[in-house]
Amino acid sequence: MIKYFEPNKIFSVTSKAPKYVLILFIIVLSIGLTESLIFSPEDYKQSHSVRIMYVHVPAAWITLGIFSSITVLSIIGYIFKIKNFFLISKSLAPSGFIFNIIALVTGAIWGKPTWGTWWVWDARITSMLILTLFYAMYLLAWRIYNDERVYKITSIIAIIGIINVPIIKYSVDWWNTLHQPASINILSKTTIHSSMLFPLMIMTAAFALFSLLIFLMKYNTELIKIKNKGLDRL
Amino acid sequence: MYGRKVKLRFFFVISILIVLILSVSLILKSLEENVVYFQSPSEIKNFAELKKKKIRIGGMVKKNSISADSNEISFIITDFKNEINVSYNGVLPNLFEEGKGVVAEGFLKDRNYFLASKILAKHDENYMPPEVKAALEEK
Lengths: 234, 139
Prior knowledge:
Chain A is mainly alpha-helical. Chain A has helices at 7-39, 53-80, 83-114, 123-144, 149-162, 164-174, 194-228.
């Protein structure tokens, strides 16, 4: 297992891959934006303001996905003492944080024309704001501590923060919220028309590629830092 | 297999998670009244005493219940069991419509009458093009 974590091997991938991911990201994003802004129909009720969904929903999915990955990687890294997993988590966090803020801002922009308000303190929106704070704490911890303690402290933040993720997901089902319930359900019927679901999926793929791109670049930097320290193993 | 330390760390993480889940769910359970964003007309009817502070009521705008004159609009919020009369003076959100979701913020005058100071529209999770909606209604 150790040989796959050989910095030189990973480094040869992370230093070359970003440019291909960038090209793929630009292609997928162009398709996604054309589909969602031009070809997809307007909504029967919200008309054109429904198009904010194609940014809002993928951003929210990605930020939740990244926080869950950070927690899983931190737990495994902590139990088995694999430092590389902490570095992967650290490199994932910035794009998760950015998508969290994008989800909140586009949510506010969407809320004004539809609900009639920029912000409400309902369970979904408040729990999403708490996730932003967890991301901020996580990123700050990496900057504050420069020694071995940083692995434990960031893991603890990730483990405490993960409790919030199911709360975000189910807040719209457990309590009365202004936010509408989920439209895309694995177990029950999806309530988005297929002509709108398609651009949503393309945009999700585009955002995932963007996260991958930022991750590879951050991770590459982390590996260079380790190389400069003269350590040959993680 | 794995070392003793690995097993200990595993059970340490698991116990942290269990303690967190239990305490957070207990806290949320006890705060339920404050976590909900609005109350339904039925819950308002069941209040032991009339609340003086600002509350929010949510439900559907009853069909054919909207009536407006020059400076006031009044309508009925229903949850299909109980209903409550609302009067309001101000700007309405675009999605405010008969038969659609609404949240009104304001003060209760009595159990059947609510004076709103803010109206928010609550939309549902259905998204479709207008043609599909028209086709569905024809069925």
